[in-house]
Amino acid sequence: MALGVLILAAFHPHLTAARIGRNIDLATDYNLLSGTSMACPHISMAAALLKASYPDWSPAAIQSALVTTANPLDNTNRPIREQDGSVASPLGIGSGHVDPNQALDPGLVYDASVQDLVNLVCSMNFTRNQTLTIIRSSYNCSNPTSDLNYPSFVALIRAAEIRRTLTRRFRRRVTNVRNGAATYKFTVEVPVNTTAVVEPQTLVFRKKNETKRYSLTIRYKADIEIQHREGAVIWTDQTGKYRVRSPIMVSAAADNFE
Ligand SMILES: *[C@@H]1O[C@H](CO)[C@@H](O)[C@H](O)[C@H]1NC(C)=O
Ligand SMILES: *[C@@H]1O[C@H](CO)[C@@H](O)[C@H](O)[C@H]1NC(C)=O
Ligand SMILES: *[C@@H]1O[C@H](CO)[C@@H](O)[C@H](O)[C@H]1NC(C)=O
Ligand SMILES: *[C@@H]1O[C@H](CO)[C@@H](O)[C@H](O)[C@H]1NC(C)=O
Ligand SMILES: *[C@@H]1O[C@H](CO)[C@@H](O)[C@H](O)[C@H]1NC(C)=O
């Protein structure tokens, strides 16, 4: 989530950006606009700054740094709220308000390669031509998986699963992007009526660029009454300086909202 207020962004040069009097229309290549859509150039700016600082980071690493360092609290240190006053869920605010300075030093990143993204597309059971339309080059679908190495977790409840107790297991890899060794321990903000198990409980990195794996297993009852419940997995290093936070969302799937 980002501010969408007075963001300098590219603008259609043939549209009126400002008017003098009644009949003098002024055009421009760039304009300062406000609104929901202006969060996009704001986030793009933050991503561009990260890419300038770390030219070898992948798009996934940049996204991870922005997500895991975002702030889920407002300027009174309470959870960000919706306009109606209810606490906003990750479906509304993602992992929170973007903090570009924190993102410059995220501690750990969830990286993903092009092949990881291909594996995700492969899991969607598209036809060969549909898959080619997305991937746009020859591809290898030998290892399809919807469990992308992504810095958040979504467990969906499908209509056919109502009242059952469900277990979902997510596998993740995190890479140490700081110089030197680091030890991280997890905390979990467990969604209500859910259990969460993280394995292993400590990640020990001996040097920069080292990657460690962990799994998150969540178990929950598929109650129809609850449209969504949220939590988070937070990896904190031994100094307490780095907090790598990923939202967890247990939510009714789209086929359940009908
Ligand atoms: C794709 O097909 C496999 C095998 O039939 C099935 O297990 C899986 O749920 C399907 N995935 C989607 C996203 O429909
Ligand atoms: C897939 O795309 C190719 C090239 O555009 C076309 O010749 C072929 O008929 C398509 N196949 C299907 C099953 O639509
Ligand atoms: C596809 O990838 C798998 C490894 O995931 C590899 O073993 C296999 O040889 C690859 N196939 C082709 C045609 O490249
Ligand atoms: C939690 O589970 C209890 C017992 O099934 C139920 O009464 C309650 O409504 C649930 N609360 C939420 C927020 O899911
Ligand atoms: C870490 O990985 C990046 C990209 O693969 C590389 O440019 C950099 O030299 C590596 N740093 C160390 C300390 O290994």
UniProtKB/TrEMBL annotation:
Gene Ontology molecular functions: serine-type endopeptidase activity
Domain of life: Eukaryota
First and last residue of the signal peptide: 1-17
Domain spans labelled Subtilisin-like protease fibronectin type-III: 147-250
Keyword terms of this UniProt record: Signal
Keyword Disulfide bond applies: no
UniProt keyword Signal, yes or no: yes
Annotated PROSITE patterns: SUBTILASE (PS51892)
InterPro entries to which the protein is assigned, alphabetical: Peptidase_S8/S53_dom, Peptidase_S8/S53_dom_sf, SBT, Subtilisin-like_FN3
GO annotation, biological process: proteolysis
Domain Peptidase S8/S53 residues, every copy: 28-76
SUPFAM superfamilies given in the database record: Subtilisin-like
PANTHER family with a match to the protein in the record: PROPROTEIN CONVERTASE SUBTILISIN/KEXIN (PTHR10795)
Family: Belongs to the peptidase S8 family.
Protein name as catalogued: Uncharacterized protein
Species this chain originates from: Salvia splendens
